[in-house]
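Appendix B, Record 12. Input sequence as logged:
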Amino acid sequence: MPSSHAILLLSLITLPFTSTRIFTSTTAAPAAGKPKRLVTKLLHRDSLLYNPNDTVDAQAQRTVNMSMARFIYLSQKSSQKAHDTRAHLHPGISTVPVFYVNFSIGQPPVPQLAVLDTGSSLIWVKCQPCEKCRATTFDPSKSLTYATLPCDSSYCTNDCSGYPDECWYNIRYTNGPDSQGTIGSEQFNFETSDEGKTFLDDVGFGCSHNNAHFSDEQFTGVFGLGPATSSTHSLVEKVGSKFSYCIGNLNYFEYAYNMLILGEGAILEGDSTPMTVIDGSYYVTLEGISLGEKMLDIDPNLFKKNDTWSDAGVFIDSGTTLTWLVPSAYQTLRKEVEDLFQGLLPSYPMDPAWHLCYSGNINRDLQGFPAMAFHFAGGADLVLDAESVFYQESSSVFCLAVGPSDINGERFKDLSIIGMIAQQNYNVAYDLVSKQLYFQRIDCELLADD
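Logged structural output:
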């Protein structure tokens, strides 16, 4: 056991706003003793944006491009202080998210399709009046339940200079303000899988009036699942300070049991590891990486959060697909994979050269491939089968679903991110009260009637 444990930074960056807490439902109250929970489906991007002419090659290219863009986005956010609303996005690369949350806001209800994002505690949607928004955007002036939060509200941490009557937020990206608007409160309506329609009253959210770089008409906002600080209350806290998401195989975009569970009844089972909240972010301790029975020779200090430089540590993220490791750890893993395939499968050269690829098919050629695992303090293991270690680049080529972090820029060489390919076939749960993170390998269908 190493004497100095690695610190793993979960990508849940907090933003300083929300509203009061009321939980109501249109259905009968849960049975006595049963914790309240809100269960809603997560919608896969490829089920929403289905293209019958799409190819495996095109899907793989989206995966790589999106993962690279997301990496830089999160790394820039991590270098900001927890109370700073500025973030940065790498320009020129499409950031197609993996999963969406479907809900409605207001009375009468207006449907929303928001990106699931554990990298932000702010929920925001496109609102009228709005620049670069489609006509069906939410209009708060037509809702009977909308209220603007004043700047002197206890839920607003702005300095109130210039806009004393409203609480403004401004999330900045590389080329200017990407989401800018006011913080308000509204009724949220969810179609849940276990209790029908569920309403959350007085939810604090961002009403975005300017959405530069978010011109994609397929989604209407961001559904943040980040943590809260002493000056902010996230939606997660509103329903009980616990949440979990269960994800099936990402290649099966019609899988009906991808789900998000919010509330005290979230599924907290499986291995658990302690979390620590520092500056509004969650950390856990990473102790090692193994492949098969072999613990890889990787210094855990490579993953340690640097006290003087923010671009270090390891994120677990809901928005990226590939996993990124610090260069030394990546090279050690790559060498081990190359040794395992030596003489068995021909390598397939790719551009750029950091891609480690082979001629073959994952389902056909990787039967019996040894499991890879991330090992955390407390005995929690995230164990990956071949489909969670590799992705299909084309019908006849597969690649390692891990890359070196420094290809995104030298300043990011100490930062790592564990993406959604590594988290597929798991229920990942967060207990924000006891500060525990849970990993449970499971078919999500088994949780549907839990």
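Residues 56-78 form the longest helix (23 residues).
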